[in-house]
């Protein structure tokens, strides 16, 4: 099988880069469908529209409905047939929808994240959900975004919870890529990991352990520091390239499994659920106590969930855990990149083990958070 590495055509990161959006976008198209939700329109969308206009780009403003569903994609694509570029501004689901709309229209796509909460911006795929928010599938595209613009000033203004969630999502990158490489699994591009993909995934984790807590504190003060710049890049570019070209594993499959449940868990962010999925993968892989505790300790410092109670599943039944596990091991899921055969029963046991390991660690350090 061939090795494959894919990436966006251009990535630009820095303070106030969205104020120069038109300068970059005009190289791709002159008629833009611009997508954002109501909150993001007030935060950054109108500023982007103004600069696009100054650069001679015609714009069509579209309000995102909130779910990256097939129905929402069809609705927006139907309104943008005259556009030659789609611009998504906001969080993961908005950006995934923008990519899907651009694919429907067969035009260029520009991604402008307003948080560093996921590694979705650089990827050539979208996660598609039902109208009710249940995971349905990954949708793959022939190319990655033409341009990713990351404004660290705007990201510094977002709640620190979002940065921590992005760190959790990015912390899964090397854990999953390592397992996928060991299992000779395929990456999101349908090939084996390149040396570059592996190196980038590993570097993402290195940067996060080194600068993650500093960046988190900078975010609390809403300031842009070298540590924040490094972590935004790790959350967005390094993790994006690392997961897509390195390969996913169990952490994201278990995250997807959690969408089978109803209740408060759905108030958690993507990254918060992935954090617990990462601990579950480490338990499933039989990693050492020292290694698992290193992740638990880091997550606790960032206010991330590490137990079933933390992810609002304190009294979850075995029946519900089996639903999660069965969805996580369904055919085509990334958990099958791990070495060997993974069963639903093994996943249930790993979920319980991760919960117990985290409880024991909290008790050992007298954690009262």
Automatic annotation (TrEMBL):
Binds 1 zinc ion per subunit. GO terms for molecular function: glycerol dehydrogenase (NAD+) activity; metal ion binding. It catalyses: glycerol + NAD(+) = dihydroxyacetone + NADH + H(+). The keyword Nucleus does not apply. InterPro entries: ADH_Fe/GldA, ADH_Fe_CS, Glycerol_DH. Its EC number is 1.1.1.6. Pathway: Polyol metabolism; glycerol fermentation; glycerone phosphate from glycerol (oxidative route): step 1/2. Keywords: Metal-binding, NAD, Oxidoreductase, Zinc. Its cofactor is Zn(2+). Belongs to the iron-containing alcohol dehydrogenase family. This is Glycerol dehydrogenase. It comes from Terribacillus halophilus.
């Amino acid at each position: 099988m061939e090795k494959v590495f894919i990436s966006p055509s251009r990535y630009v990161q820095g303070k106030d880069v969205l104020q120069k959006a038109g300068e970059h976008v005009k190289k791709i198209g002159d008629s833009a469908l611009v997508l954002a939700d109501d909150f993001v329109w007030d935060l950054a969308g109108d500023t982007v529209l103004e600069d696009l206009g100054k650069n001679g780009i015609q714009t069509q403003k579209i309000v995102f409905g909130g779910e990256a569903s097939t129905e929402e994609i069809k609705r927006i694509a139907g309104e943008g047939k005259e556009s030659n570029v789609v611009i998504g501004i906001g969080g993961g689901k908005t950006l995934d929808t923008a990519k899907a709309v651009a694919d429907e229209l067969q035009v260029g796509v520009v991604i402008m994240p307003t948080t560093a909460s996921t590694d979705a911006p650089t990827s050539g795929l979208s996660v598609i959900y039902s109208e009710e928010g249940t995971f349905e599938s990954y949708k793959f595209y022939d190319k990655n975004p033409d341009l990713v613009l990351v404004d660290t000033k705007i990201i510094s203004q977002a709640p620190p919870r979002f940065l921590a969630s992005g760190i959790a999502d990015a912390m899964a990158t090397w854990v999953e890529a390592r397992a996928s490489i060991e299992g000779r699994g395929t990456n999101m591009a349908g090939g084996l990991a390149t040396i570059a993909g592996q190196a980038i995934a590993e570097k993402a984790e290195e940067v996060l352990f080194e600068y993650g807590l500093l960046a988190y504190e900078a975010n609390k003060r809403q300031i842009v520091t070298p540590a924040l710049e490094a972590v935004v890049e790790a959350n967005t570019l390094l993790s994006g390239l690392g997961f897509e070209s390195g390969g996913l594993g169990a952490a994201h499959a278990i995250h997807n499994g959690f969408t089978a449940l109803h209740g408060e868990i759905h108030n958690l962010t993507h990254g918060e659920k992935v954090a617990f999925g990462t601990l579950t993968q480490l338990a499933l892989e039989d990693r050492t106590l020292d290694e698992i505790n290193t992740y638990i300790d880091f997550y606790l410092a960032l206010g991330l969930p590490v137990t079933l109670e933390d992810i609002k599943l304190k009294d979850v039944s075995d029946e519900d855990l089996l639903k999660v596990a069965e969805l996580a091991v369904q055919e085509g899921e990334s958990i099958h990149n791990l070495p060997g055969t993974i069963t639903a029963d093994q996943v249930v046991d790993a979920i319980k083990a991760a919960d117990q390991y985290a409880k024991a660690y909290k008790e050992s350090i007298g954690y009262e958070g």
